[in-house]
Specification:
The chain contains 3 helices and 3 strands. It is about 55% helix and about 5% strand.
Length: about 270
Amino acid sequence: MSTHAIRSRDEALAGGLAFAMHVLFMLLLVFGVSWQHKQADTAVIVDLWRELPAVTPPRTEPPPPPPPEVKPEPPKPAPKVEAKPPPKPEPAPAPKPDIALKEKQERERKLKAQQEAEAKKKLAAEKAREMELEKKKRAEAEALKLKQAAEAEAKRIAAEQQKAREALAAQQAAAQAKVVDEYKRRISEKIRRFIVLPPNVSDAAQVEFQVTVLPGGEILGPPKLLRSAGSIPAYDAAVERAIIRAQPLPLPPDPALMRHFRELNLVFRPKD
Protein backbone atom coordinates (compact mmCIF):
# COMPACT_ATOMS: atom_id res chain seq x y z
CA MET A 1 0.00 0.00 0.00
CA SER A 2 1.30 3.46 -0.84
CA THR A 3 2.05 6.21 1.65
CA HIS A 4 -0.79 8.27 0.28
CA ALA A 5 -3.32 5.48 0.95
CA ILE A 6 -2.09 5.02 4.52
CA ARG A 7 -2.31 8.70 5.19
CA SER A 8 -5.87 8.82 3.84
CA ARG A 9 -6.90 5.94 6.08
CA ASP A 10 -5.45 7.56 9.22
CA GLU A 11 -7.19 10.80 8.45
CA ALA A 12 -10.51 8.96 7.98
CA LEU A 13 -10.10 7.13 11.33
CA ALA A 14 -9.29 10.34 13.20
CA GLY A 15 -12.30 12.01 11.68
CA GLY A 16 -14.57 9.16 12.75
CA LEU A 17 -13.34 9.31 16.34
CA ALA A 18 -13.83 13.06 16.47
CA PHE A 19 -17.38 12.71 15.15
CA ALA A 20 -18.19 9.98 17.75
CA MET A 21 -16.92 12.14 20.61
CA HIS A 22 -19.10 15.04 19.44
CA VAL A 23 -22.17 12.78 19.30
CA LEU A 24 -21.45 11.41 22.81
CA PHE A 25 -21.00 14.92 24.17
CA MET A 26 -24.32 15.97 22.70
CA LEU A 27 -26.12 12.94 24.22
CA LEU A 28 -24.65 13.65 27.65
CA LEU A 29 -25.70 17.27 27.42
CA VAL A 30 -29.28 16.38 26.45
CA PHE A 31 -29.51 13.70 29.16
CA GLY A 32 -28.20 16.05 31.80
CA VAL A 33 -30.68 18.75 30.97
CA SER A 34 -33.56 16.30 30.97
CA TRP A 35 -32.50 14.86 34.32
CA GLN A 36 -32.26 18.23 36.01
CA HIS A 37 -35.74 19.09 34.74
CA LYS A 38 -37.21 15.91 36.25
CA GLN A 39 -35.48 16.45 39.59
CA ALA A 40 -36.88 19.98 39.85
CA ASP A 41 -40.47 18.66 39.83
CA THR A 42 -40.02 16.13 42.79
CA ALA A 43 -39.19 16.72 46.44
CA VAL A 44 -35.62 16.87 47.41
CA ILE A 45 -34.59 14.04 49.64
CA VAL A 46 -31.35 14.51 51.48
CA ASP A 47 -29.61 11.40 52.55
CA LEU A 48 -26.93 12.08 55.06
CA TRP A 49 -24.05 9.75 55.02
CA ARG A 50 -21.66 9.27 57.84
CA GLU A 51 -18.97 8.32 55.51
CA LEU A 52 -18.68 8.91 51.82
CA PRO A 53 -19.11 5.80 49.75
CA ALA A 54 -16.22 4.74 47.74
CA VAL A 55 -16.20 6.30 44.27
CA THR A 56 -15.64 3.86 41.55
CA PRO A 57 -13.47 5.49 38.84
CA PRO A 58 -15.01 5.43 35.42
CA ARG A 59 -13.97 2.64 33.24
CA THR A 60 -11.85 3.70 30.38
CA GLU A 61 -11.34 1.61 27.36
CA PRO A 62 -7.78 1.08 26.21
CA PRO A 63 -6.80 2.97 23.07
CA PRO A 64 -6.93 0.98 19.92
CA PRO A 65 -3.66 -0.54 18.86
CA PRO A 66 -1.71 1.44 16.28
CA PRO A 67 -2.12 0.24 12.75
CA PRO A 68 0.58 -2.01 11.47
CA GLU A 69 3.37 -0.19 9.74
CA VAL A 70 3.08 -0.67 6.08
CA LYS A 71 6.22 -0.31 4.12
CA PRO A 72 5.77 1.70 0.95
CA GLU A 73 6.24 -0.28 -2.16
CA PRO A 74 9.03 0.95 -4.38
CA PRO A 75 7.72 3.01 -7.31
CA LYS A 76 7.37 1.07 -10.44
CA PRO A 77 9.48 2.37 -13.28
CA ALA A 78 7.53 4.35 -15.82
CA PRO A 79 6.91 2.46 -18.95
CA LYS A 80 9.42 3.38 -21.64
CA VAL A 81 7.81 5.34 -24.39
CA GLU A 82 9.47 5.01 -27.68
CA ALA A 83 9.94 8.35 -29.52
CA LYS A 84 8.02 8.35 -32.72
CA PRO A 85 9.44 10.23 -35.68
CA PRO A 86 7.49 13.40 -36.60
CA PRO A 87 4.96 12.79 -39.27
CA LYS A 88 6.17 13.71 -42.70
CA PRO A 89 4.34 16.67 -44.24
CA GLU A 90 2.02 15.56 -46.83
CA PRO A 91 2.93 16.99 -50.23
CA ALA A 92 0.70 19.82 -51.36
CA PRO A 93 -1.65 18.75 -54.02
CA ALA A 94 -0.41 19.73 -57.42
CA PRO A 95 -2.43 22.61 -58.88
CA LYS A 96 -4.64 21.84 -61.67
CA PRO A 97 -3.26 22.62 -65.12
CA ASP A 98 -5.72 25.49 -65.71
CA ILE A 99 -4.97 27.19 -62.38
CA ALA A 100 -1.18 26.82 -62.86
CA LEU A 101 -1.42 28.26 -66.35
CA LYS A 102 -3.49 31.21 -65.13
CA GLU A 103 -1.05 31.87 -62.29
CA LYS A 104 1.88 31.73 -64.72
CA GLN A 105 0.13 34.07 -67.11
CA GLU A 106 -0.68 36.47 -64.24
CA ARG A 107 2.95 36.49 -63.11
CA GLU A 108 4.12 37.10 -66.66
CA ARG A 109 1.57 39.89 -67.06
CA LYS A 110 2.70 41.58 -63.82
CA LEU A 111 6.36 41.22 -64.79
CA LYS A 112 5.70 42.68 -68.23
CA ALA A 113 3.70 45.57 -66.74
CA GLN A 114 6.52 46.28 -64.27
CA GLN A 115 9.11 46.23 -67.07
CA GLU A 116 6.97 48.56 -69.19
CA ALA A 117 6.51 50.94 -66.26
CA GLU A 118 10.27 51.00 -65.60
CA ALA A 119 10.97 51.59 -69.31
CA LYS A 120 8.45 54.45 -69.41
CA LYS A 121 9.96 55.94 -66.27
CA LYS A 122 13.46 55.70 -67.73
CA LEU A 123 12.32 57.21 -71.04
CA ALA A 124 10.58 60.06 -69.23
CA ALA A 125 13.72 60.75 -67.19
CA GLU A 126 15.84 60.80 -70.35
CA LYS A 127 13.39 63.15 -72.08
CA ALA A 128 13.40 65.42 -69.03
CA ARG A 129 17.21 65.51 -69.07
CA GLU A 130 17.24 66.24 -72.80
CA MET A 131 14.68 69.01 -72.36
CA GLU A 132 16.66 70.51 -69.50
CA LEU A 133 19.85 70.35 -71.56
CA GLU A 134 18.11 71.91 -74.56
CA LYS A 135 16.66 74.61 -72.34
CA LYS A 136 20.09 75.31 -70.92
CA LYS A 137 21.60 75.49 -74.40
CA ARG A 138 18.88 77.89 -75.56
CA ALA A 139 19.43 80.05 -72.49
CA GLU A 140 23.19 80.11 -73.10
CA ALA A 141 22.68 80.93 -76.79
CA GLU A 142 20.23 83.68 -75.89
CA ALA A 143 22.63 85.06 -73.29
CA LEU A 144 25.49 84.97 -75.83
CA LYS A 145 23.29 86.66 -78.42
CA LEU A 146 22.32 89.37 -75.95
CA LYS A 147 25.96 89.81 -74.96
CA GLN A 148 27.07 90.12 -78.56
CA ALA A 149 24.26 92.57 -79.27
CA ALA A 150 25.23 94.61 -76.20
CA GLU A 151 28.88 94.60 -77.25
CA ALA A 152 27.96 95.61 -80.80
CA GLU A 153 25.73 98.37 -79.47
CA ALA A 154 28.48 99.53 -77.13
CA LYS A 155 30.95 99.57 -80.04
CA ARG A 156 28.48 101.45 -82.22
CA ILE A 157 27.86 104.01 -79.48
CA ALA A 158 31.61 104.31 -78.85
CA ALA A 159 32.23 104.79 -82.57
CA GLU A 160 29.49 107.37 -82.80
CA GLN A 161 30.86 109.16 -79.75
CA GLN A 162 34.37 109.05 -81.19
CA LYS A 163 33.08 110.32 -84.51
CA ALA A 164 31.17 113.06 -82.73
CA ARG A 165 34.27 113.98 -80.75
CA GLU A 166 36.35 114.04 -83.89
CA ALA A 167 33.75 116.12 -85.66
CA LEU A 168 33.57 118.47 -82.71
CA ALA A 169 37.34 118.65 -82.54
CA ALA A 170 37.44 119.35 -86.27
CA GLN A 171 34.81 122.02 -85.87
CA GLN A 172 36.70 123.52 -82.97
CA ALA A 173 39.97 123.29 -84.88
CA ALA A 174 38.35 124.90 -87.90
CA ALA A 175 36.85 127.59 -85.70
CA GLN A 176 40.17 128.12 -83.98
CA ALA A 177 41.99 128.23 -87.33
CA LYS A 178 39.46 130.72 -88.58
CA VAL A 179 39.99 132.88 -85.47
CA VAL A 180 43.77 132.53 -85.75
CA ASP A 181 43.67 133.48 -89.43
CA GLU A 182 41.37 136.37 -88.64
CA TYR A 183 43.66 137.82 -85.97
CA LYS A 184 46.78 137.23 -88.04
CA ARG A 185 45.07 139.22 -90.82
CA ARG A 186 44.25 141.96 -88.33
CA ILE A 187 47.86 142.06 -87.11
CA SER A 188 49.15 142.33 -90.72
CA GLU A 189 46.64 145.07 -91.54
CA LYS A 190 47.57 147.07 -88.45
CA ILE A 191 51.31 146.83 -89.20
CA ARG A 192 50.70 147.65 -92.88
CA ARG A 193 49.00 150.91 -91.90
CA PHE A 194 52.28 152.04 -90.34
CA ILE A 195 54.54 151.15 -93.35
CA VAL A 196 55.95 154.16 -95.23
CA LEU A 197 57.06 152.86 -98.62
CA PRO A 198 60.38 154.29 -99.80
CA PRO A 199 60.64 155.45 -103.43
CA ASN A 200 61.54 153.12 -106.28
CA VAL A 201 60.33 149.96 -104.42
CA SER A 202 59.60 147.11 -106.81
CA ASP A 203 56.22 145.38 -106.63
CA ALA A 204 58.06 142.05 -106.41
CA ALA A 205 59.92 143.07 -103.27
CA GLN A 206 59.16 140.81 -100.24
CA VAL A 207 60.33 140.97 -96.64
CA GLU A 208 59.75 138.50 -93.74
CA PHE A 209 60.18 139.14 -90.02
CA GLN A 210 59.80 136.88 -86.96
CA VAL A 211 58.48 138.39 -83.75
CA THR A 212 57.81 137.05 -80.25
CA VAL A 213 54.52 138.34 -78.98
CA LEU A 214 53.68 138.64 -75.28
CA PRO A 215 50.13 137.99 -73.95
CA GLY A 216 49.43 141.71 -73.87
CA GLY A 217 50.28 142.17 -77.56
CA GLU A 218 53.73 143.73 -77.03
CA ILE A 219 56.77 142.44 -78.92
CA LEU A 220 59.63 140.90 -76.98
CA GLY A 221 62.81 142.48 -78.40
CA PRO A 222 63.37 143.80 -81.88
CA PRO A 223 61.85 141.94 -84.84
CA LYS A 224 64.12 139.32 -86.39
CA LEU A 225 64.68 139.63 -90.16
CA LEU A 226 64.25 136.24 -91.81
CA ARG A 227 64.15 137.36 -95.45
CA SER A 228 65.32 140.72 -96.81
CA ALA A 229 63.97 142.57 -99.81
CA GLY A 230 67.46 142.43 -101.33
CA SER A 231 68.60 145.53 -103.11
CA ILE A 232 66.11 147.72 -101.28
CA PRO A 233 67.14 147.76 -97.61
CA ALA A 234 65.00 150.83 -97.07
CA TYR A 235 61.91 148.61 -97.44
CA ASP A 236 63.25 146.26 -94.76
CA ALA A 237 63.72 149.18 -92.37
CA ALA A 238 60.28 150.62 -93.15
CA VAL A 239 58.57 147.31 -92.32
CA GLU A 240 60.56 146.89 -89.10
CA ARG A 241 59.58 150.39 -87.94
CA ALA A 242 55.92 149.67 -88.75
CA ILE A 243 55.94 146.47 -86.60
CA ILE A 244 57.32 148.34 -83.62
CA ARG A 245 54.83 151.22 -84.01
CA ALA A 246 51.83 148.80 -84.33
CA GLN A 247 52.21 147.61 -80.71
CA PRO A 248 50.19 146.28 -79.00
CA LEU A 249 49.22 143.78 -81.65
CA PRO A 250 45.57 142.58 -81.66
CA LEU A 251 45.20 139.12 -80.07
CA PRO A 252 42.15 136.81 -79.67
CA PRO A 253 40.40 136.83 -76.26
CA ASP A 254 40.76 133.04 -75.81
CA PRO A 255 44.04 132.36 -73.95
CA ALA A 256 44.09 128.86 -75.41
CA LEU A 257 44.79 130.38 -78.84
CA MET A 258 47.84 132.28 -77.59
CA ARG A 259 50.08 129.37 -78.62
CA HIS A 260 49.36 130.27 -82.27
CA PHE A 261 50.66 133.84 -81.71
CA ARG A 262 53.68 133.21 -79.51
CA GLU A 263 56.02 133.11 -82.52
CA LEU A 264 54.74 134.97 -85.58
CA ASN A 265 56.27 135.01 -89.06
CA LEU A 266 55.11 138.18 -90.82
CA VAL A 267 55.46 138.48 -94.61
CA PHE A 268 54.91 141.82 -96.40
CA ARG A 269 54.84 142.93 -100.10
CA PRO A 270 54.35 146.44 -101.41
CA LYS A 271 51.19 145.54 -103.33
CA ASP A 272 49.45 143.65 -100.43
